[in-house]
UniProtKB/TrEMBL annotation:
PANTHER family: ALPHA-AMYLASE FAMILY MEMBER, PERIPLASMIC ALPHA-AMYLASE. It catalyses: Endohydrolysis of (1->4)-alpha-D-glucosidic linkages in polysaccharides containing three or more (1->4)-alpha-linked D-glucose units. Residues 65-489 form the Glycosyl hydrolase family 13 catalytic domain. It comes from the Bacteria. Keywords: Carbohydrate metabolism, Glycosidase, Hydrolase, Signal. InterPro entries: Alpha_amylase (IPR006046), GH (IPR017853), GH13_cat_dom (IPR006047). Coiled coil: none annotated. It comes from Microbulbifer bruguierae. This is Alpha-amylase.
Length: 582
């Protein structure tokens, strides 16, 4: 990797020397060493992960998820790379968004104004070049059809663009989560051959009836499944060695692989190659965390390995980039376990996901958080029901000490909440004020359409951002609503990570408490002058800020009085007690 600067600088001289002493005649062609499958090396999975209380930052974080191709086009010159054509079915081809577009929005302060703590982009590694006809003619605009884990897809930009994006994000105080895949390659197309049979399977196709029928099978008839159960050493796929040879980097890639396997002792099985490739992005550019795709479709042990290696990689990057790091926070990993959710949603049972014949606690395999797929269903309930139940579960119940990432909508959940965008204001309140971390799906904040009648399948939920809509007063008001909620969360960890307590039914008032950080929220208030009790939340004489209007007031005789044009109060200390910890 690191094609923009030659061999990765963090490979130790000892590791390179060890690689140079290996049997170069075999290693350079990716052929495994004869001792790579020994019993001692096969014991690599390392499922014992350090237990710790979830970081309050990540329990409260606001994460912005986007498909870069559908976000903003910063460089029209890369809209069709690798000979891709503009002949896809409606909404199933590339639309031009790229890393340069994300950089531009970072520079403009778009994410800062929204109170975003981290951006999560769908996979940016090089995807298959051709199209698949499984769901009408579709190109890999979404990023989930990997071809080469060591390169950035040219439709999105370059490795230098990604490095710049991460650097700019960090300077803005925004973290970057990479979306990563170990479960499968992209589909076979006229441009993309099938990987070798010791790397992938194409059958049986999963029937979801058991652990094996979720894990050791192909998700669809067009997604070759990586043999993640294997500990057997395999050679590099010829399509990669030939590609790297053409690109002039085969020797570098092989030397890095030799050093990685020499250092770790892992067998040269497919999953360990991919772990190396994925964690290189962390080691070289300081990626802050991973969002892991298709978690339940892979043996859980490999996720513990990925977390271990990524944590080591980030620690090395921070040691080498002391002036560029945001802080000493450890590597973060959140997983997509489809049908996992809080309060025993679907196949969930507390911390466990139930396959029918086996239950797995993915929090014990390296994950700091799981995406809460139940929130989209729970959002139909009233706020107090959601907030009190979630707080109880996360602070005293089965999920005590762990984190979940709530969302209203996503790129592949057909049951996303309020796809018709009829409850824009209240939906934002439910998501951004709920206990737990919050995922904004690109365009939630401007009511981007989530239904396109012309689009087939999940493409309906992936329409491009309409930046021109921000010229409309109504869209500006919606965005302002989200921005105020985001800034409130960003200023006070207690919003998402604190303990919830209802204070009043009418108007609806509640508090959140996280150690010394206390906030209070009041909804359905009259416009104009309004008063409410601060008892038990803010001390007498304390200066309190309303993050919705920007007004401030002091507690007098146990009461707070505000005169604002809004029916919402988002109250907390104006002194940002938490920002130094970010």
């Amino acid at each position: 990797m690191k094609k923009i600067a030659g061999l990765t600088s963090v490979l130790s001289a000892a590791a390179l020397a060890l690689a140079a002493c290996s049997d170069n005649n075999t290693a350079e062609q990716g052929v495994p060493h004869s001792d790579a499958s020994s019993t001692s090396l096969a014991e690599a999975p390392l499922t014992q992960v350090k237990e710790a209380t979830a970081d309050p930052f990540w329990r409260n974080a606001t994460v912005y998820f986007m498909l870069p191709d559908r976000f903003h086009n910063g460089n029209p010159g890369n809209d069709l790379s690798y000979g891709r054509q503009a002949d896809a079915a409606y909404m199933r081809g590339f639309h031009g968004g790229d890393l340069r577009g994300v950089i531009q929005k970072l520079d403009e302060g778009y994410f800062t104004d929204l109170g975003v703590d981290a951006i999560w982009m769908s996979p940016v590694v090089e995807n298959v070049h051709g199209f698949d006809e499984g769901d009408k003619r579709t190109y890999a605009f979404h990023g989930y059809w990997p071809k080469d884990w060591t390169a950035v897809d040219a439709n999105l930009g370059s490795e230098a663009d990604l490095a710049e994006l991460i650097d700019v994000a960090h300077k803005k105080g925004v973290r970057v989560l990479m979306d990563v895949i170990i479960n499968h390659t992209g589909p076979v197309t006229s441009e993309d051959p099938l990987w070798p049979s010791d790397w992938v399977r194409t059958n049986p196709q999963c029937d979801w009836s058991s652990f094996a029928q979720n894990v050791q099978c192909a998700l669809t008839n067009n997604l070759p499944d990586i043999l993640t159960e294997s500990e057997e050493p395999v050679a590099l796929p010829p399509q990669l060695t030939e590609k790297w040879q053409r690109e002039g980097r085969l020797e570098q890639e092989v030397a890095e692989l030799d050093a990685f396997f020499a250092r770790t002792g892992y067998p040269r099985a497919p999953k360990y190659y991919i772990v190396k490739w994925l964690t290189d992005w962390v080691r070289e550019y300081g990626v802050d965390g991973f969002r892991v795709d298709t978690v339940k479709h892979t043996e859980p042990e490999i996720w513990a390995v990925l977390k271990k290696e990524a944590s080591l990689a980030l620690a090395e990057w921070k040691a080498a980039h002391a002036s560029e790091k945001l802080d000493d926070r450890e590597f973060f990993m959140v997983g997509e376990v489809y049908h996992y959710g809080i309060n025993n949603f679907a196949n969930s049972e507390g911390r466990f996901y139930d396959y029918g014949d086996r239950k797995v606690d993915f929090f014990n395999y390296g994950f700091d958080s799981l995406i809460n797929m139940g929130f989209a269903a729970h959002a139909a309930q009233d706020m107090e029901t959601i907030f009190s139940q979630y707080s109880g579960t996360l602070h005293e119940g089965e999920l005590q000490g762990v984190s979940v990432l709530n969302y209203l909508g996503s790129h592949d959940d057909h049951h996303s909440f309020d796809r018709e965008r009829k409850q824009v204001k209240s939906a934002a309140l439910k998501l951004m004020l709920a206990p737990g971390a919050a995922q904004i799906y690109y365009g939630d904040e401007v009511a981007r359409p989530m239904i396109d009648e012309q689009a087939y399948g999940d493409a309906s939920m992936r329409v491009p951002m309409d930046w021109a809509s921000l010229q409309q007063t109504q869209t500006q008001e919606i965005l302002s609503h989200w921005q105020k909620l985001g800034q409130f969360r960003r200023a006070h960890f207690a919003v998402g990570a604190g303990v919830h307590q209802k204070l009043s039914d009418t108007p609806y008032v509640f508090s959140r408490t996280l150690e010394d950080d206390r906030v209070m929220v009041a909804l359905d208030l009259p416009a104009g002058r309004k008063t409410l009790s601060a008892e038990g939340v803010f001390a007498e004489g304390a200066l309190v800020k309303d993050y919705y209007s920007g007004a401030e007031a002091r507690v007098e005789n146990g009461m707070l009085a505000f005169d604002t044009q809004f029916d919402i109060l988002l109250l907390g200390s104006p002194a940002n007690q938490q920002m130094s910890a970010r």
